[in-house]
Amino acid sequence: MVIHEDCRQFRGDIPCHPHKEHGAHCEDCSYYDPVKEQILIIKLGAIGDVIRTTPLLHKLKEVHPQAKMHWLTNTPEILPDQIDRVYRFIPQDIEVLKQMQFDTLYNLDKDREACALANIIQADTKKGFVLKNGNSYPLDDPARQKWITGLFDDENRKNTKSYMEEIFEISGFKFQGEEYILNARQEQTWNLSKDKKIVGLNTGCGIRWKSRLWPESHWIRLAEMLINNGYEVLFLGGKQEDEKNQRLAKKSGGQYLGHYSLQVFIDLMNQCDLIVTAVTMALHIALGLKKKVVLFNNIFNRHEFDLYGRGVIVEPPKECKGCFMNDCEETCMELILPEEVFQKTVQLLR
Predict the structure, then answer these.
(1) Containing H/E element for 339?
(2) What average pLDDT does this structure show over 243-258?
């Protein structure tokens, strides 16, 4: 019996999809897709970090069309369909990876556990970061530059490259505007106006840097101005923002439909024409959905973000110390006025 073990469809222990769906067998299978290379991407990271690494897949598919793509992550539910096999950061999957041989391994994560795996997993070529004496360490000059900006705040502030430019260079490519890939969502029916442009106000920013929060009074004022000018306002957030969003909706007259699973939240965001948000997961979902964006930024280097020509970055009229503290005595975010955000929003929606 002929068994095409090199086929992209081959699963090793269970029937492949062509067999289950069409009764195909290897000897005469029209779906046979031979794999010439095995590529592993390690990007554990937060959901937003994983989403903003997906542009790299465009280039990898172009340069290695017959490669089988593998990805190790903490958030497998967000990975696009272009990944052939997804691995979770759990002992069972790690044991499998340790017994595999890859042509190229890209570790784009500086977390020590990711770097340790990059040391252990077998690959002919490795790019990115490994572990040295218990710490993250760059494999070459492009990775070294990214490594240095993570070590020194002043070097970080000097950087003029976007995150995508950095990871493309680390991987040996040149970033040319490749878009995010985001196709994980559950389509729902929403009680939202079809006659008005919908502005999503994402009010959270995670728990790591509370200094990024915009005052509630500013959210209320922005929502009121938008509503009075014919826009529909939709407050967005997760469980952490639930009580706040209920308050904001009640005080401003905007809508808040609750918090949801990741896939449903993505579909809710997809109903919006524009998203106002701080640097958080919602920013990268918005970019993945190709939405217009008004981005609040205070502590990060603005060059890190590429909004693909569909957004603007709004910053306080006061230079950040760049210390990346969770709490800061300088309440700079309140200096971003709702009137300015309203104007930027209207300009983008024209």
Answers:
(1) helix 338-349
(2) 97
- Is 198-349 in the same CATH topology as 35-170? yes
Contacts 24+ apart (CB under 8 A), 284-290: 284/47, 284/48, 284/49, 284/51, 284/52, 284/180, 285/48, 285/51, 285/182, 286/200, 287/51, 287/52, 287/180, 288/51, 288/54, 288/180, 288/181, 288/182, 289/182, 290/179
Provide the residue ranges of all domains of the chain, joining segments of one domain with +. 35-170, 198-349
Q: What's the length of the chain?
A: 350
Q: Which of 30, 35, 52 is nearest to 43 (CA)?
A: 52
Residues 6+ apart with CB under 8 A from 23: none
Q: CATH fold of 35-170, please?
A: Rossmann fold (3.40.50)
Distance CA 314, CA 48 (A): 20
pLDDT in tens, 293-325: 999 998 888 999 999 999 999 999 877 665 556
Helix, strand, or coil (residue 234): strand
Which pair of tokens denotes residue 214?
Answer: 């915009």
**Which CATH number does 198-349 carry?**
3.40.50.2000
